[in-house]
Amino acid sequence: MQESDATAWYRRWTWKKLIVRSLLLTFVLLAAAAGWVHWKLRSSLPQIAGTVNVSGIADSVTIDRDHLGVPSIKATSRNDAAFGLGFLHAQDRFFQMDCLRRLSAGRLSELFGEAAVDSDMRFRKHRFSERASKVMDGMPAHYRSVLDAYTSGVNQGIELLHAAPFEYLMLGQQPREWEAQDTILVMLSMLCDLQPMDAKPELALGLLHEKIPAEVFDFLVPRGSQWDAALDDSMFEPAAIPSAEIWSMRSSSALEPQEVAHDQLDDDVFGLIQISSFDREFRVGSNNFVVSPARGNGHAMLGSDMHLGLRIPATWYRAVITSPTIAGDERTLVGVTLPGTPMLVEGSNGSVAWGFTNSYGDYSDVIELKTVSNQPDHYLTPDGPKPLVRHTESITFKGGSKEFEYLWSEWGPVVAERDGRRFVHRWVGHDSEAFNLRAMELEATSSVEETLLVANSTGMPHVNIVAVDTSGNIGWTVCGRVPRRRSEPPMLPVDWSTTEMDWQGYLSPDEYPRLLNPPDGIIWTANNRILGDEYLRLIGDGGYDRGARARQIRDRLRAEKTFDEKSLMQVQLDDEALFLQRWQTLLLTTCQAPTSPVSEEFIEHVIHWEGRASTTSVGYRLTHEFRQQVINRIFGFEVSGREALNSAISEPGGFAVATGIREYVPIAYEDASWSLITEQPEHWLALKYNNWQELLEEAASATERTLTREHPLTSATWGQRNLVTVNHPITGVVPILSSWLNMPPCELPGDNNMPRVQGPLFGASQRMVVAPGRETEGIYHQPGGQSAHPYSPFYQAGFEDWYKGNPSPLLPGKTLHTLVLEVSTAQAAE
Q1: Given this model, what pLDDT does residue 209 score?
Q2: Count of alpha carbons within 13 Å of 147, Cβ hemisphere only?
Q3: What does the pLDDT look like over 414-442, one tens digit per residue?
């Protein structure tokens, strides 16, 4: 009897057919999943043309975009302009904003999981959320109105996307509503990017001060530098090398070299904010400078390039905003905004243009608590003993949580405990009165003098501001609230159990240092010391750059009679190796000695080093590495975490052995090293060397060994060392997306101690050259596009001009897309 077709189908299948059909089914399911992901990703792209009905605006807002996606916002009120900017920030950069507010609030783990717990604990103990709330409580109504409008724009911008931004899909998360105080948290994250929130430099200097004689400390931590380029040309006499009677490393016990752990920089977990190492020789550095009309072809001009950690999306969001300002007069603002904040950060308002660099002043103190006998959690104050408050926090993340405790005093958190001693950080970042939104008033200023006055009362991260106006004035001052102290800010931990060293509130605007229209018609800042004694008494030394970069900028500006926008940008791109010139001469002399341990090929590369930090130069890289090897053999501290990542330096030098200190200490490595190499005092030479020539030759030999370990010497170009990566933070937790989200690696010229500051993980977060009133001639660069969405045509737009240094216009091009935000029918009916 024959089986029916209905019951026999499974008997007709073979294993081969089963496998094939299973594979087909799997393929269909994968294709469906990929299609769903693709659909979700496309759904999270913003609408860039047409009309959108929104609530919260009084009149329609028009947003034009050019081929790069740069928006031009037109609104009839400052509140509506803030709404439009918030709308754009949310649709193009919400994940970036979210990460910035979560970073300072200590809530990254909620997005990234357990890997971010250490970062969250580090930030949570500063209680920044509480600070932000207090700032909001005291905010004037006219600022709060703009901030509320911005907040409304952000929330409607994210709500009107058809799907959450793609990063949340990848992380399996949903975005959380924006709150007005989140803007303050973003400002706090930027402050933490620019200043050491855990006071490590002062703690390290305090440890060093306890280990060595005062004369040695003064030599290693001098008041000035051989490279100083202050605006008033002030210089400080260098300290003499301490004699053998005061200090000698030859009397120390000879110790075998041992591995030193490379203490990497205090970066947060995924590079969202990159905290500088704050050493005095190697750091991220910003430049700005202005020239008077006599030097600017009849126009006062500004050049500004803020340097930060490189990431995609870029730190800044370009915008042109035409609307009434907070003062009521209509302006067209051109420049950069920071996603999460409602104001123009840097740029031109048509009358005045301004730019920023980190000031590296001293805006904090480290206080060593004096304990109370038999009460270990009490400390002495001028008002008697007080208890430390013990806070318990819970860090939650997907799949778990972690509790931790920290101690808080009336002056701030306990940031370090050493040998039973507790140290507290008293910092502007812990004061709610140190933050406000007065930076919005820069948008309405009409002169440099007015701009400087506004800057002096603005609560924001502490930066040098330089400005120019259409009348031809140029000027400089400091932004941010500066503590009023009884004496010059201390560089070492202090005792506040009495009233001798406490703060007396903040400086009033008329107490700030300023400079207006200097006779030579130029002003420059590059994270260096700006002025002399009185400046230091007010601002202090928070780890200034030693000045080589500032000097090179100053000399370039002085060397030319006139500049236009393109020639002023060439100052920003200057990669001449003036700082390393003397090291190249020293290396060549060392290599040509009869006992030289290096090859002829090595010597030839040193001779033909090009004198620039160019990508093709082997000689520059040899000189750079040689300097590092020499300094390590003298000191042995971790000179720079980033440098250690790219060098084979692993031995502690004589000074580290003699003091027993292995951790990084922020001393004047360049100045001290060059003085010692020049004078070659035997008592400062590590025991393992018979003379200084032996140290130099060993450093040269180590340089060649290091750079030929894996490749021929001809491959050891500076470009291979300075291979720049601009990555998206999400690839830190989802590495498989790296090739899709990250910018292509590129070799770039430049280095730390020259105007074109460039390293593998940091560089110019933007470049701008502009004369107010001549914005059409302005130039702008940034390392990434307007959109954070990889499907957007604006994702990489502008990146090529940035890394090639091609001049590109500051103003947007022809309008290609227009979006109109209209008052919703429901709101209009009300």
Answers
A1: 94
A2: 22
A3: 999 988 899 999 999 999 988 999 999 99
Which residue type, as a one-letter code, is found at position 222? P
Please report, for residues 97, 423, 487, the alpha-carbon distance to residue 740 in angstroms, rounded to integers and kept in the order given.
21, 45, 54
HEC readout, 639-688: CCHHHHHCCCCCCCCHHHHHHCCCCCCCCCHHHHHHHHHHHCCHHHCCCC
- Residue 806's pLDDT band (cuts 50, 70, 90): very high
Neighbouring CB atoms inside 10 A of 509's CB total 14
From 187, 277, 108, 89, select the one nearest 729 (Cα to Cα): 108
What one-character DSSP code corresponds to residue 796? Answer: S
Q: Integer distance in angstroms from the first to the last C-alpha of the chain?
A: 82
Please tell me the pTM assigned to this model: 0.91
Question: Is residue 356 pLDDT above 80, yes or no?
Answer: yes
Distance CA(611)–CA(73), nearest Å, equals 46
| CA pair distance 669, 260, nearest whole angstrom | 18
Amino acid occupying residue 406 = Y
Instruction: Name the pLDDT band for 263 (thresholds 50, 70, 90).
Output: very low
From CA 569, how far away is CA 766, in angstroms rounded? 12
Interacting residues of 262 by C-beta distance below 8 A, sequence separation 6+: 638, 641, 644, 645
Question: What distance in Å separates the CA atoms of residue 313 and residue 609, rounded to the nearest whole number?
Answer: 35
Cα separation, 307 vs 311, whole angstroms: 12
Q: Which residues of 9-18 are buried (b: 16+ CB within 10 A; e: fewer)?
A: eeeeeeeeee
Q: What percent of the chain has pLDDT over 90?
A: 77
Both tokens of 53, joined, read 């009905």
In the block, tokens 């700006």 appear at 530
Q: How far is CA 825 from the centre of its chain?
A: 44
Condensed to tens digits (0 to 9), the pLDDT of residues 659-716 reads 767 667 888 999 999 999 999 999 999 888 999 999 999 999 999 999 999 899 999 9
The pair phi, psi for residue 716, each rounded to 5°, is -85, 60
Say which range, 1-5, 471-475, 518-522, has the weakest mean pLDDT: 1-5
- Sequence-distant (6+) residues with CB within 8 A of 293 are 299, 300, 472, 521
What is d(CA 295, CA 303) in angstroms, rounded to the nearest whole number?
13
Task: Kindly give the pairing relationship between strand 364-368 and strand 352-358.
Answer: unpaired
User: CA–CA separation, 165 vs 44, rounded Å?
Assistant: 5
How crowded is the C-beta side of 509, counted as CA atoms within 13 Å?
Answer: 12
Other Cβ atoms closer than 10 A to 490: 17
Sequence-distant (≥ 6) Cβ neighbours of residue 106 within 8 angstroms: 119, 120, 121, 122, 123, 124, 125, 128, 129, 393, 395
Cβ burial 383-392 (10 Å sphere, 16+ → b, else e): eeeeebeeee
pLDDT, tens digit, 9 for 90 and up, residues 14-42? 666 667 666 766 666 666 665 656 567 78
At position 617, the amino acid (one-letter code) is S
Per the listing, tokens 């990460």 go with: 99
